[in-house]
Amino acid sequence: MPCSKQKLPTGHLRLRKPWPEQALNPRRVRWKLLRKGWAKYRLRRSMLLGKPWRVRVQPMTLATRQHASNFFDLGGHSLLAGRVLARVANIFGVSFPIRTLFEGPTIDALARRVEEAREMQSKEPRSEIAFVEAHGPQSLSIVQENVFRIERELPGLPQFNLPYIYRLHGPLNVPALERSLAEVTRRHDSLRTAFDWSGEGPIALVLPAAETGSPLVVVDLAGERAARKGRANALLLKKAELEAEQESWTPFDLTRAPLFRARLFRLGADDHVLIFVLHHIIVDGWSIGVFLEEVSKLYSGFAAGRDVQLPEPPFRFSDLVHWQRRWCTTDSAARQLAYWKSHLRDAAPVFPAEGGVAGALASRIDHEPIHLPNELVARLSALARSQCGSLFMTLLAGFKAMLLARTGRGDICVGTAMANRSQQWTEGVIGPFENTTVIRTRINSDLSFREAIGRVRDSVLAAHARQELPFEILAARLAEEDGLDPASLIQVFFVLQNAMVRPLKLPDVTIRSMGDASREGQPVLPINRTWLTLTLKERPSGIAGSCTYKNDSFGADTVQDWIADYRAILAKAAATPEASLGQLTDH
Q: Is 299 inside any structural domain?
């Protein structure tokens, strides 16, 4: 068959009912797993309803041998793999760990697994989601409860403020923007939730949309004066930047919803500065993507005079909180707890422990920037695919190689944040699902970098398969039953934020992020127990990020040297992945 190429358009996952039982034969399984548009084949009626590959992979050309196309060669990564498998679970009624897609990243391989799973499907009853009251007192999620308790211990601080600041050039429709924000607030109960203490515990109070005021405040810095030029414009912009920074640092009152602010500073008719500040108790990184995407879609319609109605989320965050509380009492949760207790037995901190919790929280935090160029990222991505891994796994392997060289420890625990959205119905919900997990890997200087990637890959996949158990529950049980300080397991934290967060897009308006791009969306005053956190983000120019550290434990020169070592290890590994870790860390 001659090779034909087509464009793979971007798309979104949709919630659908499982495919009828009679349709589950090998040929149709494969076709339902295909993305419409992957090849020139055309099937009648609804043969292509099942489109788990329809995720936000950027447009690219594909050959007609689509059954053998490798998911990761198309730009897939761990987050997208989770979305694909959530889609498969929704269509076929069978669930797989993310390891499944790493071990068989093609349509054919996944179809075989679906067929096998359907024949040996587990009979364990599923925990169904129940709707709860739309308004009034609700339970907090376990993550929210932890955040709320920290807020009560350290009141009046902006430790959970997440700022996003943009410079807008162009004809901005302010009423359309305000209407868009009001509609997003109506759609998501987490954006209308306040928190208080009642009796012996915290409660969440969901306000009706009609009782929630507009989150947008417009501040006219330009006034009625004539257009400014030169230095006057620069001073006006500086004033807007200072105002935005002050908004970033202004604490929230958790008893008053909404717990996010939108401020629009007008510098001129077509010149604005927009800032969103959201409290971490109502959002996570994934939620920001949902928030910005919905604001963009709604604004586009409202600004054009259209009445936009987005599909309603199938569940509210408060429904999912209730479901999570019930899940934590199931056998599935007990099995995950047993695994983690066994897996983390005898784990030691990366750095010698000192001081208590109060000292950890009181430590001053500093930052050092880091950047990896596109050329290096492309080579590392190719290396990851050759090892049936992801860019995250390869970057983490390099980070652990650096820690091995600097500390001499080969048994290394590193904390990371996982999206914890393995069910498809969580994708469009705004709320803090994100969960901390521990990646424990044993490496030594004799391993090749390829072998190190393999070990990190195995530990990441094992953690990913057990990411639902809230870290707070695990930490409490480890401290109570094993005498293990949970903070020691996450002294070091590593995060790669994939290009999943859709940027803010407003028609006819040019938008540019302001401030330190490497710190965008991170707490302005981080209060945590980690000693060293490396946060990386995919950018058009490569990977940018920052290394956050406790300056009473590490000096700036030390951290700068570690960052330089890390970049050097990655560059050498990309060129000679067969080299041993000892060779890669030799100066």
A: yes
For residue 70, the enclosing domain spans 6-119
pTM for the predicted model, two decimal places: 0.80
Residue with the two structure tokens 């490496």: 443
Domain CATH code at residue 290: 3.30.559.10
**Based on the domain organization, do 256 and 214 belong to the same domain?**
yes
Whether residues 14 and 150 share a domain: the answer is no
- Chain-centroid distance of CA 217 in Å reads 28
Q: Which amino acid is at 55?
A: V
Q: Other CB atoms closer than 10 Å to residue 305's CB: what's the count? A: 8
**Helix 285-303 and helix 174-187: axis angle, to 10°?**
130
User: What tokens does 487 get?
Assistant: 């903070």
CB neighbour class for 525 (10 Å; exposed up to 12, middle 13-18, buried from 19): middle
Give the contacts of 96 (CB within 8 A, at least 6 positions apart): 85, 88, 89, 113, 117
Residues 143 and 267 reside in one and the same domain:
yes
Q: Tell me: the pLDDT tens digits for 429-475?
A: 999 999 999 999 999 999 999 999 999 999 999 999 899 999 999 99
| Other beta carbons within 10 Å of 330 | 14
**CATH code: domain of residue 38:** 1.10.1200.10
CA 170 to CA 168: how far, in whole Å? 7
What are the tokens at 366?
């500093």
